[in-house]
Specification:
By secondary structure, this protein is of the alpha/beta class. Among the domains are: 32 residues, no CATH class; 205 residues, Rossmann fold. It has 15 helices and 13 strands.
Protein backbone atom coordinates (compact mmCIF):
# COMPACT_ATOMS: atom_id res chain seq x y z
CA UNK A 1 0.00 0.00 0.00
CA UNK A 2 1.46 3.42 -0.90
CA UNK A 3 1.92 6.10 1.73
CA UNK A 4 2.77 9.79 1.99
CA UNK A 5 6.32 10.55 3.07
CA UNK A 6 8.19 13.73 4.01
CA UNK A 7 11.08 14.41 1.63
CA UNK A 8 13.18 15.66 4.56
CA UNK A 9 12.60 13.73 7.79
CA UNK A 10 10.96 10.72 6.11
CA UNK A 11 7.93 10.75 8.41
CA UNK A 12 5.12 8.65 6.95
CA UNK A 13 1.42 9.37 6.74
CA UNK A 14 -1.64 7.44 5.59
CA UNK A 15 -2.55 7.79 1.93
CA UNK A 16 -5.99 9.16 2.88
CA UNK A 17 -4.85 11.77 5.39
CA UNK A 18 -5.37 15.30 4.05
CA UNK A 19 -2.20 17.29 4.59
CA UNK A 20 0.16 19.30 2.43
CA UNK A 21 3.23 19.57 4.67
CA UNK A 22 4.95 17.27 7.12
CA UNK A 23 3.47 17.66 10.61
CA UNK A 24 6.90 17.14 12.19
CA UNK A 25 9.30 19.30 10.18
CA UNK A 26 7.04 21.28 7.83
CA UNK A 27 8.62 20.08 4.59
CA UNK A 28 6.73 18.84 1.53
CA UNK A 29 5.46 15.32 0.89
CA UNK A 30 5.63 12.71 -1.83
CA UNK A 31 3.91 9.40 -2.50
CA UNK A 32 6.01 6.28 -1.90
CA UNK A 33 5.27 2.75 -3.10
CA UNK A 34 6.31 -0.69 -1.94
CA UNK A 35 8.02 -1.73 -5.19
CA UNK A 36 7.89 -5.44 -4.41
CA UNK A 37 4.12 -5.15 -3.99
CA UNK A 38 3.79 -2.90 -7.06
CA UNK A 39 5.87 -5.26 -9.20
CA UNK A 40 3.61 -8.15 -8.22
CA UNK A 41 0.51 -6.11 -9.06
CA UNK A 42 1.93 -5.18 -12.46
CA UNK A 43 2.84 -8.79 -13.27
CA UNK A 44 -0.83 -9.72 -12.86
CA UNK A 45 -2.14 -6.65 -14.71
CA UNK A 46 -2.98 -6.06 -18.38
CA UNK A 47 -1.79 -2.43 -18.21
CA UNK A 48 0.42 -2.72 -21.29
CA UNK A 49 -2.60 -3.52 -23.47
CA UNK A 50 -4.33 -0.23 -22.64
CA UNK A 51 -4.07 2.92 -24.82
CA UNK A 52 -1.29 5.35 -24.04
CA UNK A 53 -2.76 7.75 -21.48
CA UNK A 54 -2.45 8.71 -17.83
CA UNK A 55 -4.82 5.92 -16.80
CA UNK A 56 -2.88 3.27 -18.71
CA UNK A 57 -0.82 3.52 -15.53
CA UNK A 58 -3.75 3.00 -13.16
CA UNK A 59 -1.70 0.48 -11.14
CA UNK A 60 1.00 3.12 -10.57
CA UNK A 61 -1.49 5.62 -9.13
CA UNK A 62 -2.48 5.93 -5.42
CA UNK A 63 -6.22 5.65 -6.08
CA UNK A 64 -8.40 3.03 -4.41
CA UNK A 65 -11.29 2.54 -6.82
CA UNK A 66 -11.35 2.88 -10.61
CA UNK A 67 -15.00 3.96 -10.32
CA UNK A 68 -13.82 7.23 -8.77
CA UNK A 69 -11.68 8.28 -11.73
CA UNK A 70 -12.40 11.76 -13.13
CA UNK A 71 -11.01 11.88 -16.66
CA UNK A 72 -11.13 13.82 -19.92
CA UNK A 73 -8.84 11.30 -21.69
CA UNK A 74 -5.61 13.09 -20.84
CA UNK A 75 -2.11 11.92 -21.70
CA UNK A 76 -1.01 9.98 -24.75
CA UNK A 77 0.44 13.16 -26.25
CA UNK A 78 2.68 13.03 -29.29
CA UNK A 79 6.43 12.57 -29.14
CA UNK A 80 7.38 14.32 -32.36
CA UNK A 81 10.72 13.58 -33.96
CA UNK A 82 11.96 16.97 -35.14
CA UNK A 83 14.72 16.56 -37.75
CA UNK A 84 14.59 20.10 -39.13
CA UNK A 85 14.81 21.65 -35.68
CA UNK A 86 17.59 19.21 -34.80
CA UNK A 87 19.56 20.40 -37.81
CA UNK A 88 18.86 24.02 -36.91
CA UNK A 89 20.31 23.65 -33.39
CA UNK A 90 23.04 21.13 -34.26
CA UNK A 91 21.72 17.80 -32.94
CA UNK A 92 21.40 14.39 -34.55
CA UNK A 93 18.23 13.27 -32.76
CA UNK A 94 15.64 15.54 -31.20
CA UNK A 95 12.06 14.98 -30.09
CA UNK A 96 9.37 17.37 -28.87
CA UNK A 97 6.86 15.96 -26.38
CA UNK A 98 3.93 18.29 -26.98
CA UNK A 99 1.78 18.53 -23.86
CA UNK A 100 -0.41 21.12 -25.54
CA UNK A 101 -2.30 18.14 -26.97
CA UNK A 102 -3.95 17.46 -23.60
CA UNK A 103 -7.70 18.22 -23.15
CA UNK A 104 -7.32 21.75 -21.73
CA UNK A 105 -4.11 22.39 -23.66
CA UNK A 106 -1.41 21.84 -21.04
CA UNK A 107 0.45 19.22 -19.01
CA UNK A 108 -1.56 20.24 -15.94
CA UNK A 109 -4.31 17.84 -16.98
CA UNK A 110 -2.11 14.88 -16.06
CA UNK A 111 -1.96 16.03 -12.47
CA UNK A 112 -5.54 17.21 -12.25
CA UNK A 113 -7.09 13.94 -13.34
CA UNK A 114 -5.41 12.21 -10.40
CA UNK A 115 -5.71 15.15 -7.99
CA UNK A 116 -9.42 15.69 -8.58
CA UNK A 117 -10.02 11.94 -8.51
CA UNK A 118 -8.38 11.85 -5.07
CA UNK A 119 -10.47 14.85 -4.00
CA UNK A 120 -13.64 12.95 -4.94
CA UNK A 121 -12.35 9.84 -3.18
CA UNK A 122 -11.74 11.88 -0.02
CA UNK A 123 -15.24 13.35 -0.18
CA UNK A 124 -14.15 16.92 -1.04
CA UNK A 125 -16.83 19.15 -2.56
CA UNK A 126 -14.71 22.29 -3.06
CA UNK A 127 -11.26 22.50 -4.69
CA UNK A 128 -8.94 25.50 -4.90
CA UNK A 129 -5.66 26.61 -6.46
CA UNK A 130 -3.50 29.64 -7.10
CA UNK A 131 -2.49 29.96 -10.72
CA UNK A 132 -0.76 31.97 -13.42
CA UNK A 133 -3.24 30.42 -15.87
CA UNK A 134 -2.89 26.77 -16.88
CA UNK A 135 -3.52 25.30 -13.43
CA UNK A 136 -6.75 27.27 -13.10
CA UNK A 137 -7.93 26.23 -16.56
CA UNK A 138 -7.27 22.57 -15.83
CA UNK A 139 -8.69 22.49 -12.32
CA UNK A 140 -11.84 24.29 -13.46
CA UNK A 141 -12.41 21.71 -16.21
CA UNK A 142 -11.88 18.66 -13.99
CA UNK A 143 -13.94 20.13 -11.16
CA UNK A 144 -16.76 20.68 -13.65
CA UNK A 145 -16.36 17.09 -14.82
CA UNK A 146 -16.58 15.89 -11.22
CA UNK A 147 -19.49 18.19 -10.36
CA UNK A 148 -17.72 19.95 -7.51
CA UNK A 149 -17.09 23.61 -6.65
CA UNK A 150 -13.91 25.32 -7.86
CA UNK A 151 -12.17 28.53 -6.77
CA UNK A 152 -9.00 29.91 -8.35
CA UNK A 153 -6.83 32.81 -7.23
CA UNK A 154 -4.86 34.53 -9.96
CA UNK A 155 -2.27 37.31 -9.55
CA UNK A 156 -2.79 40.86 -10.71
CA UNK A 157 -1.23 41.91 -14.00
CA UNK A 158 -1.37 40.15 -17.32
CA UNK A 159 -2.98 36.72 -17.42
CA UNK A 160 -3.15 35.13 -20.86
CA UNK A 161 -6.76 35.31 -22.03
CA UNK A 162 -6.75 31.80 -23.46
CA UNK A 163 -6.23 30.43 -19.96
CA UNK A 164 -8.49 32.85 -18.12
CA UNK A 165 -11.31 32.17 -20.56
CA UNK A 166 -11.12 28.44 -19.79
CA UNK A 167 -11.35 28.90 -16.04
CA UNK A 168 -14.29 31.25 -16.44
CA UNK A 169 -16.31 29.22 -18.95
CA UNK A 170 -15.95 26.08 -16.82
CA UNK A 171 -17.64 27.93 -13.98
CA UNK A 172 -14.83 28.49 -11.52
CA UNK A 173 -15.02 31.42 -9.12
CA UNK A 174 -12.03 33.52 -10.19
CA UNK A 175 -10.47 35.95 -7.70
CA UNK A 176 -7.71 38.26 -8.94
CA UNK A 177 -5.43 39.07 -6.01
CA UNK A 178 -3.60 42.40 -6.00
CA UNK A 179 -0.17 40.80 -5.80
CA UNK A 180 1.97 38.14 -7.49
CA UNK A 181 1.51 34.38 -7.77
CA UNK A 182 3.47 33.60 -4.63
CA UNK A 183 1.19 35.86 -2.58
CA UNK A 184 -1.91 34.25 -4.12
CA UNK A 185 -0.53 30.82 -3.20
CA UNK A 186 -0.02 31.91 0.41
CA UNK A 187 -3.72 32.79 0.64
CA UNK A 188 -4.65 29.43 -0.85
CA UNK A 189 -2.57 27.65 1.79
CA UNK A 190 -4.25 29.66 4.55
CA UNK A 191 -7.76 29.01 3.18
CA UNK A 192 -7.16 25.26 2.92
CA UNK A 193 -5.76 25.21 6.47
CA UNK A 194 -8.59 27.27 7.95
CA UNK A 195 -11.46 25.68 6.03
CA UNK A 196 -11.00 21.91 6.02
CA UNK A 197 -13.78 21.48 3.45
CA UNK A 198 -11.54 23.10 0.80
CA UNK A 199 -9.06 20.75 -0.90
CA UNK A 200 -5.90 22.37 -2.26
CA UNK A 201 -4.70 21.26 -5.69
CA UNK A 202 -1.54 23.20 -6.47
CA UNK A 203 1.52 21.09 -7.25
CA UNK A 204 2.37 21.02 -3.52
CA UNK A 205 -0.33 18.34 -3.45
CA UNK A 206 1.55 15.04 -3.96
CA UNK A 207 -1.34 13.46 -5.86
CA UNK A 208 -0.90 16.07 -8.60
CA UNK A 209 2.70 14.88 -8.99
CA UNK A 210 1.52 11.28 -9.31
CA UNK A 211 -0.49 12.15 -12.40
CA UNK A 212 2.31 14.23 -13.91
CA UNK A 213 4.87 11.44 -13.49
CA UNK A 214 3.07 9.59 -16.31
CA UNK A 215 4.82 11.99 -18.67
CA UNK A 216 8.10 10.24 -17.86
CA UNK A 217 6.55 6.81 -18.39
CA UNK A 218 5.16 7.79 -21.79
CA UNK A 219 8.43 9.18 -23.12
CA UNK A 220 10.20 5.90 -22.37
CA UNK A 221 7.46 3.77 -23.88
CA UNK A 222 7.35 5.94 -27.01
CA UNK A 223 11.11 5.42 -27.38
CA UNK A 224 10.71 1.63 -27.28
CA UNK A 225 11.34 1.30 -23.54
CA UNK A 226 14.51 3.36 -23.59
CA UNK A 227 15.13 6.63 -21.80
CA UNK A 228 16.60 9.50 -23.84
CA UNK A 229 19.99 10.91 -22.90
CA UNK A 230 18.45 14.18 -21.76
CA UNK A 231 15.05 15.70 -21.03
CA UNK A 232 14.70 19.49 -21.15
CA UNK A 233 11.75 21.04 -19.40
CA UNK A 234 10.46 24.52 -18.48
CA UNK A 235 10.52 25.18 -14.74
CA UNK A 236 8.13 27.43 -12.83
CA UNK A 237 6.78 26.05 -9.56
CA UNK A 238 9.04 23.03 -10.21
CA UNK A 239 6.40 20.33 -9.81
CA UNK A 240 6.74 18.99 -13.34
CA UNK A 241 10.49 18.39 -13.47
CA UNK A 242 10.13 16.66 -10.10
CA UNK A 243 7.23 14.55 -11.34
CA UNK A 244 8.93 13.46 -14.56
CA UNK A 245 12.03 12.42 -12.61
CA UNK A 246 9.86 10.46 -10.16
CA UNK A 247 8.24 8.58 -13.03
CA UNK A 248 11.59 7.81 -14.64
CA UNK A 249 13.15 6.53 -11.43
CA UNK A 250 10.11 4.33 -10.76
CA UNK A 251 10.30 2.82 -14.25
CA UNK A 252 14.02 2.24 -13.71
CA UNK A 253 13.52 0.62 -10.31
CA UNK A 254 10.85 -1.66 -11.77
CA UNK A 255 13.23 -2.71 -14.55
CA UNK A 256 11.34 -1.17 -17.48
CA UNK A 257 14.30 1.01 -18.52
CA UNK A 258 18.04 0.41 -18.08
CA UNK A 259 19.35 3.99 -17.95
CA UNK A 260 18.16 7.37 -16.73
CA UNK A 261 18.34 10.73 -18.56
CA UNK A 262 19.89 13.99 -17.44
CA UNK A 263 17.14 16.32 -16.26
CA UNK A 264 17.64 19.86 -17.52
CA UNK A 265 15.48 22.70 -16.20
CA UNK A 266 14.99 26.01 -18.01
CA UNK A 267 13.87 29.23 -16.36
CA UNK A 268 13.38 32.78 -17.61
CA UNK A 269 16.13 35.22 -16.62
CA UNK A 270 13.70 37.34 -14.60
CA UNK A 271 12.34 34.37 -12.67
CA UNK A 272 15.18 31.91 -12.10
CA UNK A 273 15.76 30.98 -8.44
CA UNK A 274 16.37 27.29 -9.19
CA UNK A 275 18.67 27.87 -12.16
CA UNK A 276 20.70 30.34 -10.11
CA UNK A 277 21.05 27.84 -7.27
CA UNK A 278 22.30 25.19 -9.68
CA UNK A 279 24.72 27.60 -11.34
CA UNK A 280 26.19 28.73 -8.01
CA UNK A 281 26.32 25.24 -6.52
CA UNK A 282 23.93 26.15 -3.72
CA UNK A 283 21.57 23.66 -2.13
CA UNK A 284 19.08 26.45 -1.38
CA UNK A 285 17.28 28.99 -3.53
CA UNK A 286 17.08 32.74 -3.14
CA UNK A 287 13.51 33.67 -3.97
CA UNK A 288 12.75 36.39 -6.50
CA UNK A 289 10.44 38.97 -4.94
CA UNK A 290 9.10 40.43 -8.20
CA UNK A 291 9.55 37.84 -10.96
CA UNK A 292 9.22 39.17 -14.50
CA UNK A 293 9.00 37.38 -17.85
CA UNK A 294 6.74 37.25 -20.87
CA UNK A 295 6.45 33.51 -20.18
CA UNK A 296 3.71 33.95 -17.57
CA UNK A 297 3.34 30.21 -16.87
CA UNK A 298 6.84 30.15 -15.33
CA UNK A 299 6.74 33.62 -13.74
CA UNK A 300 7.17 32.28 -10.21
CA UNK A 301 9.76 33.60 -7.80
CA UNK A 302 9.26 31.22 -4.87
CA UNK A 303 8.67 27.72 -6.31
CA UNK A 304 7.26 25.39 -3.66
CA UNK A 305 8.83 22.24 -5.14
CA UNK A 306 12.35 23.68 -5.42
CA UNK A 307 13.93 21.00 -3.23
CA UNK A 308 12.49 18.22 -5.37
CA UNK A 309 13.66 19.98 -8.54
CA UNK A 310 17.21 20.50 -7.30
CA UNK A 311 17.33 16.87 -6.16
CA UNK A 312 16.14 15.69 -9.61
CA UNK A 313 18.81 17.75 -11.38
CA UNK A 314 21.60 16.63 -9.05
CA UNK A 315 20.58 12.96 -8.95
CA UNK A 316 20.38 12.81 -12.76
CA UNK A 317 23.66 14.69 -13.29
CA UNK A 318 21.67 17.29 -15.21
CA UNK A 319 21.79 21.06 -15.20
CA UNK A 320 19.70 24.23 -15.36
CA UNK A 321 19.88 27.27 -17.61
CA UNK A 322 18.27 30.67 -17.99
CA UNK A 323 16.93 32.25 -21.17
CA UNK A 324 15.83 35.78 -22.00
CA UNK A 325 12.36 36.75 -23.18
CA UNK A 326 13.86 37.48 -26.61
CA UNK A 327 15.32 33.96 -26.77
CA UNK A 328 11.99 32.49 -25.71
CA UNK A 329 10.02 34.35 -28.39
CA UNK A 330 12.57 33.44 -31.04
CA UNK A 331 12.31 29.77 -30.07
CA UNK A 332 8.50 29.92 -30.15
CA UNK A 333 8.61 31.23 -33.70
CA UNK A 334 11.27 28.76 -34.87
CA UNK A 335 9.38 25.74 -33.49
CA UNK A 336 6.16 26.88 -35.14
CA UNK A 337 7.79 27.61 -38.50
CA UNK A 338 10.21 24.71 -38.73
CA UNK A 339 8.21 21.88 -37.15
CA UNK A 340 4.62 23.17 -37.21
CA UNK A 341 4.23 22.98 -33.42
CA UNK A 342 2.60 26.05 -31.86
CA UNK A 343 3.30 26.46 -28.15
CA UNK A 344 2.92 29.23 -25.59
CA UNK A 345 6.04 31.21 -24.57
CA UNK A 346 6.78 29.25 -21.39
CA UNK A 347 6.78 26.04 -23.41
CA UNK A 348 9.25 27.48 -25.88
CA UNK A 349 11.74 28.07 -23.08
CA UNK A 350 12.79 24.42 -23.37
CA UNK A 351 13.68 25.00 -27.04
CA UNK A 352 15.47 28.27 -26.19
CA UNK A 353 17.42 26.48 -23.48
CA UNK A 354 18.32 23.67 -25.86
CA UNK A 355 19.74 26.13 -28.40
CA UNK A 356 21.82 27.86 -25.74
CA UNK A 357 23.17 24.65 -24.18
CA UNK A 358 24.14 23.15 -27.54
CA UNK A 359 25.83 26.39 -28.57
CA UNK A 360 27.77 26.49 -25.28
CA UNK A 361 28.88 22.88 -25.62
CA UNK A 362 26.94 21.62 -22.58
CA UNK A 363 24.81 19.32 -24.73
CA UNK A 364 26.73 17.04 -27.09
CA UNK A 365 25.50 16.84 -30.68
CA UNK A 366 25.18 13.04 -30.38
CA UNK A 367 22.80 13.16 -27.42
CA UNK A 368 19.25 11.90 -27.87
CA UNK A 369 17.22 14.80 -26.50
CA UNK A 370 13.55 15.24 -25.63
CA UNK A 371 12.22 18.79 -25.15
CA UNK A 372 8.93 19.01 -23.28
CA UNK A 373 6.61 21.79 -24.41
CA UNK A 374 4.04 22.31 -21.71
CA UNK A 375 1.16 24.30 -23.22
CA UNK A 376 -0.59 25.09 -26.51
CA UNK A 377 0.10 28.35 -28.32
CA UNK A 378 -3.55 29.37 -28.23
CA UNK A 379 -3.20 29.77 -24.47
CA UNK A 380 -1.60 33.14 -25.22
CA UNK A 381 -2.55 34.22 -28.75
CA UNK A 382 -1.81 37.91 -28.14
CA UNK A 383 1.92 37.27 -27.77
CA UNK A 384 2.01 35.23 -30.98
CA UNK A 385 0.16 37.92 -32.92
CA UNK A 386 2.42 40.71 -31.65
CA UNK A 387 5.58 39.05 -32.93
CA UNK A 388 4.18 37.89 -36.29
CA UNK A 389 3.81 39.69 -39.60
CA UNK A 390 0.53 41.56 -39.87
CA UNK A 391 -2.03 40.51 -42.51
CA UNK A 392 -1.66 42.38 -45.79
CA UNK A 393 -4.85 44.03 -47.00
CA UNK A 394 -5.30 43.88 -50.78
CA UNK A 395 -7.97 44.70 -53.32
CA UNK A 396 -10.24 41.88 -54.42
CA UNK A 397 -8.35 41.48 -57.70
CA UNK A 398 -6.07 38.71 -58.92
CA UNK A 399 -3.35 41.15 -59.94
CA UNK A 400 -3.29 42.73 -56.48
CA UNK A 401 -2.99 39.32 -54.81
CA UNK A 402 -0.24 38.25 -57.20
CA UNK A 403 1.63 41.48 -56.58
CA UNK A 404 1.41 41.00 -52.80
CA UNK A 405 2.78 37.49 -53.21
CA UNK A 406 5.60 38.68 -55.43
CA UNK A 407 4.31 36.74 -58.40
CA UNK A 408 5.04 38.24 -61.83
CA UNK A 409 2.30 37.98 -64.42
CA UNK A 410 3.84 36.92 -67.72
CA UNK A 411 2.51 38.62 -70.81
CA UNK A 412 1.72 36.31 -73.69
CA UNK A 413 2.59 37.78 -77.10
CA UNK A 414 0.78 36.12 -79.97
CA UNK A 415 2.59 35.79 -83.29
CA UNK A 416 0.86 37.59 -86.09
Amino acid sequence: MPHQECINCKSQYDIDEILYFCKKCGDILEIKFDFKELSQTLSESNWKTKPLSVWRYRDFMPIHEAANIVTLNEGGTGLHRSPRLAEEVGLKELYVKNEGENPTGSFKDRGMTVGVTKAVELGARHVICASTGNTSASLAAYAARAGIKCTVLIPSGKIAYGKLAQAMIHGAKVLQVRGNFDQALEFVFKLAEKHKSIYLLNSINPFRIEGQKSLGYEICEQLDNKAPDRIIIPVGNAGNISAVWKGLTEFHQLGFIKTLPKMTGIQAVGSAPIAQAIKTGSDKIITVENPETIATAIRIGAPVSWKKAINAIHESHGTAETVTDEEILDAQKILARIEGIFVEPASASSIAGLKKLVKNGIIDKDERVVCITTGHGLKDPDTAIKQSEKPIEVDAEMSAIEQALGLQTRKVILAR
